[in-house]
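Regression test case RT-17, inverse folding.

Input:
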């Protein structure tokens, strides 16, 4: 699908100033922009956001995703002129996003308290490593540090190896997502009261929020989660299993689902076996059950196994890379991937806008700005009524 940009989205009319750089702040801006907000991104003159050069391969393209739906305004926040410009834009904005080290805005004469005094309706989203308060607030913090402190890194990988990481910057994007969620909640509050507020999203807390019962398990029973590789202890079967031509993920840990898997294996008696008949029993015999299933899947191709799992209505799926996503008919049918025109690359295929709203869907209305500050004059005229 080619992104058409016809839908204005539910946040049409909301103005956002994005002061952040790298991942967390800009991803929050991407989410709000996808939902229809007008995003004015302030970039250092000349160099711009380092994200312009991030990505993999000989043509890094991450910028095309994280900067879509944004207008680039060249603004040196370290200078008096740049700070004056930022204050002028903030006075006319609904939301301001920043992900600098706490205290940086204050140092630049852009204290959120002062910005909100001039514009009481302003919502300021502040994304940082440790939050705006507490003994660690002044420390520098990137996504990986938040993942470590929030407990993620301790449980990712295999027990006989050092902690691993995901192949994406999950700490940054989680903190950005919570920042976006906070901004939407603050917009609702403002609708009722007329008052904006500060949204304080910490990287380590965003990671902590998705750590399920890690802390409560320790609180109740002293249990510490450890690295367990590709399995979750006590959840079986739920693993990646070998096929003759690849790997395949099966999640059949419910009693009824496991019975269907056993029947598909030609081993219906397994569902009545005391070792595997219940959730707790399967968890207690997880390794031997995984070995039994792996011996069966190894006799099949991925396609053969998938056909059996679909017929048996067992949750399962292929492990996709980008090429397989682009070739899959379900991605196409739901427009999960869209193709966006690009002045340098011609077109760029990227993830679409999620979640999907039935009445006011979001959209990609404009590609990422190619040049730093390319929209400065237009934004200053539209927002401030003056030429750049």
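Golden output:
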């Amino acid at each position: 699908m080619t992104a058409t940009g016809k839908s204005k989205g539910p946040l049409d009319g909301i103005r956002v100033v994005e002061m952040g750089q790298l991942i967390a702040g800009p991803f929050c801006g991407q989410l709000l922009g996808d939902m229809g907000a007008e995003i004015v991104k302030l970039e250092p003159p000349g160099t711009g956001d380092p994200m312009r050069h991030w990505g993999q391969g000989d043509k890094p393209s991450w910028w095309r995703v994280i900067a879509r739906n944004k207008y680039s305004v060249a603004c040196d926040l370290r200078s008096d002129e740049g700070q004056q410009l930022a204050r002028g834009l903030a006075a006319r904005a609904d939301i301001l996003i920043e992900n600098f080290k706490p205290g940086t805005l204050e140092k630049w004469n852009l204290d959120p308290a002062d910005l909100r005094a001039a514009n009481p309706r302003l919502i300021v989203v502040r994304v940082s490593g440790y939050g705006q308060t507490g003994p660690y607030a002044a420390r520098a913090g990137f996504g990986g540090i938040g993942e470590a402190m929030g407990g993620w890194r301790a449980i990712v990988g295999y027990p006989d190896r050092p902690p691993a990481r995901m192949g994406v910057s999950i700490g940054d994007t989680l903190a950005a997502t919570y920042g976006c969620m906070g901004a939407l909640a603050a917009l609702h509050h403002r609708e009722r009261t007329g008052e904006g507020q500060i949204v304080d999203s910490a990287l380590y807390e965003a990671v902590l929020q998705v750590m399920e019962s890690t802390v409560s398990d320790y609180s109740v029973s002293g249990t510490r989660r450890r690295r367990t590789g590709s399995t979750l202890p006590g959840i079986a079967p739920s693993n990646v299993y070998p096929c003759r031509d690849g790997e395949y993920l099966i999640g059949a840990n419910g009693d009824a689902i496991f019975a269907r898997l056993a029947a598909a294996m030609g081993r219906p008696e397994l569902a009545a076996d005391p070792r595997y008949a219940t959730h707790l029993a399967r968890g207690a015999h997880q390794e031997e059950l995984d070995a039994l299933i792996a011996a069966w899947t190894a006799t099949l191709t991925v396609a053969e196994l998938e056909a059996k799992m679909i017929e048996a209505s067992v949750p399962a799926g292929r492990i996709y890379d980008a090429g397989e996503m682009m070739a899959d008919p379900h991605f196409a049918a739901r427009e999960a991937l869209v193709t966006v025109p690009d002045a340098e690359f011609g077109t760029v295929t990227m993830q679409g806008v999620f979640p999907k709203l039935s009445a006011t869907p979001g959209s990609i209305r404009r590609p990422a700005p190619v040049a730093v500050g390319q929209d400065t004059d237009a934004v200053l005229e539209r927002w401030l009524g003056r030429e750049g």
